[in-house]
Design a protein that fits this description.
Layout lengths: L3 H7 L3 H22 L1 H19 L4 H7 L5 H36 L8 H10 L4 H10 L1 E7 L8 H17 L6 H20 L10 H35 L10 E5 L13 H29 L7 H7 L5 H28 L15 H17 L3 H18 L5 E7 H14 L10 H13 L13 H15 L4 E7 L4 H13 L7 E6 L2 H15 L2 H7 L2 E7 H31 L2 E7 L11 H6 L9 E7 L1 H7 L2 H20 L7 H22 L5 H8 L28 H11 L9 H10 L3 H10 L1 H16 L2 H11 L5 H22 L9 H30 L3 H18 L4
Parallel strand pairs: 1-2, 1-8, 2-3, 3-4, 4-5, 5-6, 6-7, 7-8
Helix pairs in contact: 2-3, 2-5, 2-9, 3-4, 3-34, 5-8, 5-34, 5-35, 6-10, 6-25, 8-9, 10-11, 10-15, 10-25, 11-13, 11-15, 11-18, 12-13, 13-14, 14-15, 16-18, 16-19, 17-19, 20-22, 22-26, 26-29, 29-33, 30-31, 31-33, 32-33, 32-34, 34-35
């Protein structure tokens, strides 16, 4: 049989099409075998009609007729069939990315764009000296923060079966398989598809914060644990090729953190006990993983000859390496036992016992014996052994520490205000909430200046008790296991000082760094002055020791002002914050709160980082990886390594060769675009009297909580309008109906106004030469290409009162205007002229997503008329299927 690599040489995407066809045929065979010929034939008829409609050979009403009056069991089976096909197509596409990466590596020619080799070679070609390149790579610090934001619609059980499916596809790519081996793999693949069909794809209950954290730790154990050293090896090799020296052993270009179990913003289920349980679980998993690696090292390092330093650690042992590692393994096993006992105490409501003397409590406890082994191997001529597994373990320690995922804490500024008001009253300092900003700042500084503070009596389960109990977990578990303390909806300097004061009241000897999160457009505009005011305070400067982290929120700013307004507000805020920090002599790290969808700041990693303002990166970045994106970016080993390359190398290039800043004329046009876009967006979303009713009736927003994909409530507070709705369900609902409104509303009006003012030549220049504007426009074009306003009209006519239909007519007209304006500015005939791969992917998926949408609209109508668990189940399956077809939820 022709190998996949040979096929890829002739047509790089032929193997992908073959995989999709193979998986579709196996799914069809499963339908016939398990469900019977009638269902298979019904699925095939619907699929054929959908393809005919897409090809223009049939009217859109033909598909509606094919699905008319379908009963609930048939609707459920049809939804499952189309949903599973789309999920399997995603598996095939993920595997094809792996295949393409290996294809590049096997050619030995030009490296893949964005890879370590490609980036380092390009930087050398641009004149970056070897020493400067090595220094920048060694100092690189990118931290990816895994969050449990509710966008992962698939159960973990199903995702694992998808991983095995991808592994079978990889095995079938091998050219050296014998006929017997190939038949065996094909049989295993067929059985896997049958198992997927027989598995309930819906969650039986809503996940808890602890189960979300367990899933995050599972991603580390299953993929990231091995992907991190693999990435470091690729970077080390590329660095040696480009500069003559490798990656320093203590360098950690990529680290990982988490919000799972620490994000309290609007989630009442994240308590101090949850945070402590998650910390202990993380330390338990880490100790087990390290113990396994140390045991494997002991098997390898059986040598009798070592240095005197190693002998001093090993004592009178004829195998010094094994003795040192045996002792380290015993300490790791003691750590595992302590974590198990502490978890048992915590879950039983008892105080967790302190760690025993033998347990590991500091990273140095782990690294010291490992480094002694490494130095001894190098000194005795066995450096090749030192560079193998032992180096991999040390690189893991640099990336993961003793806790795998450093846990951020997050809470909103209003809760801190309530807590400090209660604390001030208890300390007889007056009414803190009644003070103006200057008064609050002075009160907090006065509190921070006090050499000692009296004990506080906080009301049981009040805001102060909740905040202090969470902070005291940090003291018990150790601040090295934690990352930043993030303040949601930060607006003023007192919001930041308040958290510093609360850490002082909690008795933290080593307080966490505090990162204000600026989210709305107004808060982003004011952020530079907030930080300037803080930097002007000598006490604050002393507390931060020249280091500051600021988080910027892509999701809520986009919900506040739309795509153009949000993007420009974020860009200008980063420029100004970087300048204010440079003036103050403070090293600033930006924490980018990006979502998976374009409407929440998502998009291709390299594109996003390369479009950041010049001077805003400086070798350091923190970036959220949310919900479904964790699986998409890190679910498979090779995909994980590839994405690590993209994050790290994009950051490196943005540091060493940043793009030129925008010209004054571009800024002026962008100011106009942002103003016009924001006004158009807000006039509709926040001021139109009919919009909220239309949104709630013509989308599945009301039903999204039934999907049970996250522990956090979908609203910050009960009731309220769009402003109170979290950004994820806001985007999720529009994605399900395929109108994709959050990513384009206001864009057409803004571009049309700029074109009418004679800015066409300037817009063309911006779209060609300015990475920020080019990437913004490209992402809008991508979303417009994926959208289907005709499908959204079906939802509207099926679900919304007729009085609201004019709202939909107006939105669809504005969608068409946005398409025309984007095409004119990009000077393209179609939206995806420059992205044929995505265009083909959309064409492949449409005939499978369309039936799911029509089924969903009808099922929504029935669910809203009567309470029927079978109807709800069918509806939720369509939601999961549409999410798979669109490749993201929120």
């Amino acid at each position: 049989m022709q190998s996949a690599m040979t096929d890829a040489t002739r047509d790089p995407h032929a193997p992908l099409r073959a995989d999709v066809r193979r998986l579709g045929e196996l799914l069809g065979l499963t339908l016939k075998t398990v469900e019977g010929e009638p269902l298979f034939e019904r699925v095939e008829r619907v699929r054929a009609v959908a393809k005919s409609v897409r090809a223009g050979r049939a009217d859109a009403s033909a598909l509606r007729d094919a699905l008319a009056d379908v009963d609930v069991p048939t609707a459920t089976s049809l939804a499952r069939a189309f949903s599973h096909f789309l999920q399997l197509a995603n598996v095939a596409e993920q595997h094809h990315r792996v295949r393409r990466r290996r294809h590049y590596q096997s050619l030995g020619g030009a490296p893949q764009r964005g890879s370590c080799r490609a980036a380092l070679q390009a930087l050398r070609a641009r004149g970056v000296a070897p020493d400067a390149l090595r220094e920048a790579v060694a100092a690189l610090s990118v931290e990816l923060v895994l969050t449990a934001h509710p966008t992962q619609a698939l159960r973990r059980t199903v995702r694992r079966k998808h991983h095995r499916t991808a592994a079978h596809l990889a095995a079938l790519d091998r050219a050296d398989l014998s006929p017997v081996e190939r038949a065996r793999v094909e049989d295993e693949l067929a059985r896997e598809i049958s198992a997927i069909w027989a598995t309930d794809e819906l969650r039986a209950s809503r996940p808890t914060p602890v189960s979300e954290a367990q899933a995050g730790l599972g991603e580390v154990e299953e993929t990231l644990w091995d992907a991190v050293p693999a990435f470091c090896r690729e970077l080390d090799l590329a660095l040696r090729e480009s500069t003559g020296a490798g990656l320093p052993l203590d360098a950690a270009p990529l680290r990982f953190a988490s919000w799972m179990g620490g994000d309290r913003d609007g989630n009442p289920f994240v308590t101090a006990e949850v945070t402590e349980e998650v910390c202990l679980m993380a330390r338990w998993v880490a100790a087990r993983l390290y113990a396994k690696e140390v045991e494997a090292l002991g098997d390898e390092l059986s040598m009798a000859r070592g240095t005197e330093a190693l002998a001093a650690l090993a004592g009178a042992s004829r195998e010094p390496y094994r003795e040192v590692l045996r002792r380290l393994r015993r300490r790791l096993e003691a750590t595992v036992r302590w974590c198990e006992e502490a978890l048992e105490d915590l879950r039983a409501g008892r105080d967790a016992r302190p760690s025993p003397r033998g347990a590991l409590t500091a990273v140095e406890d782990l690294t010291a014996p490992l480094l002694a082994c490494l130095e001894s191997l190098r000194a005795t001529g066995l450096g090749a052994l030192a560079e193998a597994r032992l180096t991999d373990v040390l690189r893991r320690v640099s990336a993961f520490g003793l806790t795998l995922l450093r846990l951020d804490l997050r809470q909103d500024s209003e809760t801190h205000l309530e807590a400090m008001t209660e604390a001030a009253a208890a300390l007889e300092l007056g009414d803190y909430a009644a003070l103006d900003e200057a008064g609050r700042v002075e009160a907090l500084l006065s509190l921070l200046r006090r050499p000692e503070l009296p004990p506080l009596r906080a009301e049981a389960d009040g805001p102060l008790a909740r905040v202090l109990s969470s902070l005291r977990v940090v003291e018990r578990q150790g601040p090295e296991n934690f990352g930043a303390y993030v303040i949601s909806m930060a607006e003023r300097a007192s919001d930041v000082l308040c958290v510093h004061a609360l850490q002082r009241l909690a008795g933290l000897a080593r307080p966490l760094r505090v990162a204000p999160l600026f989210e709305t457009v107004d808060d982003l505009r004011d952020a530079p002055e907030v930080m300037r005011a803080l930097y002007a305070l000598p006490m604050y400067r002393a507390m931060i020791r020249g280091e500051q982290e600021v988080m910027i929120g892509y999701s809520d700013s986009a919900k506040d002002a739309g795509r153009f307004g949000s993007a420009w507000a974020l860009y200008r805020a980063q420029e100004a914050l970087a300048e204010v920090s440079r003036e103050a002599g403070v090293r600033l790290t930006f924490f980018h709160g990006r979502g998976g969808s374009v409407g929440r700041g998502g998009g291709p990693t390299y594109l996003a980082i390369s479009a950041l303002p010049p001077g805003s990166v400086e070798g350091r970045a923190r970036i959220t990886v949310q919900g479904e994106m964790i699986e998409a970016e890190f679910g498979l080993h090779d995909i994980a390594v590839r994405n690590m390359e993209l994050y790290a190398m994009a950051t490196l290039e943005a540091t060493l060769t940043p793009p030129e800043g925008p010209m004054p004329a571009w800024r002026a046009v962008m100011d106009e675009l942002a103003r016009a876009s924001t006004e158009a967006f807000r006039a509709t979303v926040h001021r139109s009297p009919d919009f909220l009713a239309y949104f709630r009736s013509a989308t599945p927003e009301q039903e999204l909580p039934l999907l049970q994909i996250g522990s956090r409530p979908s609203r910050r507070r009960p009731g309220g309008g769009v402003a109170s709705l979290r950004a994820i369900p806001w985007v999720f609902a529009w994605t399900q109906t395929r109108l994709m409104l959050p990513a384009w509303l206001g864009v057409g009006e803004a571009l049309d106004a700029a074109l009418a003012r004679g800015h066409e030549a300037t817009l063309h220049e911006m779209a060609t030469r300015w990475p920020f504007f080019r990437s913004t426009l490209d992402l809008v074009a991508m979303v417009l290409a994926k959208a289907e306003p005709g499908i959204a009209e079906v939802y509207e006519r099926t679900l919304a009162p007729e009085v609201l239909w004019p709202q939909g007519d107006a939105l669809r007209a504005r969608f068409a205007d946005a398409v025309r304006a984007v095409l004119r500015v990009k000077q393209h005939a179609t939206l995806l002229d420059d992205n044929p791969v995505l265009s083909r992917s959309i064409e492949l998926r449409n005939p499978y997503v369309d039936p799911l949408n029509l089924l969903q609209a009808e099922l929504l109508r029935r669910v809203r008329e009567r309470d029927d668990p079978a109807l709800v189940r069918a509806l939720l399956i369509t939601m999961s299927g549409v999410a798979a077809g669109m490749r993201n939820t929120g």
